[in-house]
Every structure is written in C-alpha cells, then in structure tokens.
C-alpha cells in the first residue's frame, strides 16, 4: 500500500508539468480565420502538401498566430532535396528582405530613446557632407541628397533605385525628388544603417542581436553567417528545383543579410504584435501609412505606370512595412525575395491574427495567394501587386 501512495503522490506532482509540456508541443486542432471561422490543421497540411506538389515548391515553413501569440508552426518538404534532409522549424533559412522589417523595428527603438529623429535630414547627422564618404560620392552633383530623412529611407521614398548595381553605370543616383513618391529601395535602408553606425559608433548587426534577437529568444538568427549553422541550413531552389548555394554573408546589410528560422521569425512577429521593446506610439507610427502606392506592381520599382486597383484597400507604405485596410481592420505586411527564396508575412492587428510563409523555392510565391485565402481568410492582400501569380495561371 505504501508504494501505491508514493506512486500517487509522484503522479500528482509531475502530471501538471507533463500536461503543460504536452499542451505547448501539441498541434492545435483548429486555427482561427479573419471572419471568425476555423480551419482544421489537418486541412491546412493537406492543402499545403497538395499545393507544394503541384507547384513544385521544394520546402515551405508556415506559422500562424492567433490572439497575438504563436499558435501553429510547421515545416514541409526538404531543406536539402538531394540528400533527402527535411526542412524543420529550426532549420536556418534566408530571411531576405524580412531583414528590413526587423531593422525598422530596431530603428523605432532608437527613435523612442531620442537617439534618432525620423524627420531630421540624414546628412545633418554626419561630421562632413554625405558625398565626401566614398560610398556616397556619386551624389556630389545632386543637392537633393540634403532632403533625405530616415522617414524617407524607411518608407521607400528617398528617391533611390532598389540597388545602384541596377543602373547601367552601377552608380548611385536620385531618381525623383525625395519624399514625392514610393519606390522600393534597399539603398534607402542601407543609408539608414550607415547613418546609425556613424551616430552610435556601433555595428548594426551587433546592436540588433542585443536589442532584438537575444531579448526575443531568436537563437537561430543573425545578420551575418554563423559557421555552426552549416549542418542545419536550407538550400534555395530555383523554378526547376535546381539547388542554389547559400550566400554566407560576412557583412551586415540592413536591406537583407539576415538568416533566421521559422520559429525565430514567428517569435519576432509575436513581439511586434505585443509591442515588445518599443512604445505603442512608435509601433503605431511604424505601421501607419506614410505614402500611398499607385504602382500596378511592386517591381520593377521605378515604373511610372499607375493604377487605381488598390485604392479601395488604401495600399501604402509605413516605416519598413507595407500597409493596407480591410473590413477586419488594418493590416501590415513584409515580404522577402531572392533567387531560391520567397517569404511573406501579414498581420491583422485588430483581429490579433498573423501568418508567416517562408519558402526555399522560387516557386513559393505561386501558392501564397491560395494559402492566405484558405488558411486565414485573407482575400485582401494585393497579390497582383506583389507578383504572387498562382501557378495555374503562370503556365498559361
């Protein structure tokens, strides 16, 4: 009898901990959508697997957040197809321009602390004129550089091309009066990095590690390549599912040098939704439209053609994030693209709902529209502007 009593006490003692551990690791049966309906995770997984097979998507990570917290994280397919190594929730993947969203959140922390002013011309932060720095010498004959502010850099209105190497002469130039229109630009983001490093005397990658990655528990994320990732790294794959080698970046680029995992990036999105590490005022400023967008597509960035197609959703850009409006409230989003990589995230703040998609495949964006619609009920994301042409249409 004595041993039965001891066993009972032990069970009563450890059962709550086992139950909590199970609850945290168990896959939820259902996920909430924007309109209040639910979808089973079994249906989600069948949908994703079917779409990946039909569209030839090598690997896909998905995270869904309900009630401002991570609810569901799942990886599908391969991180290395040739060796049959599965993609997992902790596999290191390329963040591409997801980097810009994290960088912008970091910038808002510095604005919160009075280190930076969004509307101060950036050249005023420097001890000598901007064109006297070798990286910006090409601007010497264009006084418009004096108009550029951090707000313009983060809202993609600084007037730069996406990257200088796109120009025939590979030189940096200002294409339009800063602040007058939207044109997505990695050069603007990298200028903001340049200013911050000159103001603080510190490396932006190290500052982001200390202010974002460590506090938010993003242990598999860095702005530069880490050798310990070598055995758990996802390859990118092109449209024909041919492997592409990973760029092991040694230099920090706020425009796109971050490697991460789906677990980590979901933690970042949860932190943003909960205003962690930044004031509510600055968070709201970040996701408030700074400029209306009238271009029919995001790329190429400098097209002059316009459309009214996205006026109903008030498509615009905030500070580091795109924004639009829906019957369910405001939404903010960020994407990331490169050869072999397609990433997308969108947050519906009023509904406390978000989804993150990260594909190590150039075909990944061909299934984003259907996943957004069926998994979270998002029929509002401007998929044509994004270039998310469904695979059925892309082969016609």
Automatic annotation (TrEMBL):
**So which residues are the signal peptide here?**
1-23
Report domain Beta-lactamase-related positions: 44-366
List UniProt keywords, sorted A-Z.
Answer: Signal
Which SUPFAM superfamilies does the UniProt record give? beta-lactamase/transpeptidase-like
Kindly name one Pfam family recorded for this protein.
Beta-lactamase
InterPro entries associated with the record: Beta-lactam-related, Beta-lactam/transpept-like, Diverse_Enzym_Activities
Q: Does the keyword Signal apply?
A: yes
The keyword Signal is assigned to this record = yes
UniProt name for this protein: Beta-lactamase-related domain-containing protein
The organism's taxonomy opens as: Bacteria, Pseudomonadati, Pseudomonadota, Gammaproteobacteria, Cellvibrionales
């Amino acid at each position: 009898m004595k041993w039965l009593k001891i066993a009972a006490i032990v069970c009563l003692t450890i059962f709550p901990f086992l139950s909590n551990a199970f609850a945290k690791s168990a896959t939820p049966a259902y996920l909430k959508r924007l309109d209040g309906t639910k979808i089973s995770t079994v249906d989600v997984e069948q949908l994703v697997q079917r779409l990946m097979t039909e569209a030839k998507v090598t690997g896909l990570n998905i995270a869904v957040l309900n009630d401002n917290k991570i609810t569901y994280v799942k990886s599908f397919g391969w991180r290395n197809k040739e060796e049959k190594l599965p993609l997992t929730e902790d596999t290191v993947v390329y963040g591409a321009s997801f980097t810009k969203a994290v960088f912008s959140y970091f910038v808002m922390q510095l604005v919160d602390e009075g280190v930076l002013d969004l509307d101060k011309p950036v050249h005023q932060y420097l001890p000598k004129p901007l064109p006297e720095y070798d990286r910006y010498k090409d601007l010497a004959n264009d006084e418009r550089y004096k108009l550029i502010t951090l707000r313009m850099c983060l809202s993609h209105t600084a007037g730069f091309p996406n990257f200088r190497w796109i120009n025939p002469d590979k030189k940096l130039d200002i294409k339009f009066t800063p602040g007058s229109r939207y044109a997505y630009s990695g050069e603007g983001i990298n200028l903001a990095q340049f200013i911050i490093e000159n103001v603080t005397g510190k490396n932006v990658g190290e500052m982001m590690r200390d202010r974002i990655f460590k506090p938010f528990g993003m242990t598999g994320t860095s702005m530069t390549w880490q050798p310990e990732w070598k055995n758990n790294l996802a390859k990118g794959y092109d449209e024909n599912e041919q492997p592409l080698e990973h760029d092991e970046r040694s230099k920090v680029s706020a425009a796109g040098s971050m490697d991460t995992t789906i677990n980590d990036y979901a933690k970042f999105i949860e932190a943003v939704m909960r205003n962690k590490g930044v004031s509510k005022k600055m968070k709201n400023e970040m996701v408030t439209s700074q400029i209306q967008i009238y271009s029919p597509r995001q790329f190429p960035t400098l097209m002059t053609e316009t459309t009214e197609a996205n006026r109903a959703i008030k498509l615009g850009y905030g500070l580091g994030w795109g924004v639009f409006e829906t019957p369910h409230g405001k939404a903010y989003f960020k994407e990331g693209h490169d050869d072999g990589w397609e990433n997308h995230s969108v947050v519906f703040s009023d509904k406390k709902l978000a989804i993150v998609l990260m594909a190590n495949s150039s075909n990944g964006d061909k299934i984003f529209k259907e996943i957004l619609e069926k998994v979270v009920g998002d029929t509002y994301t401007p998929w044509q502007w994004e270039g998310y042409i469904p695979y059925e249409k892309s082969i016609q």
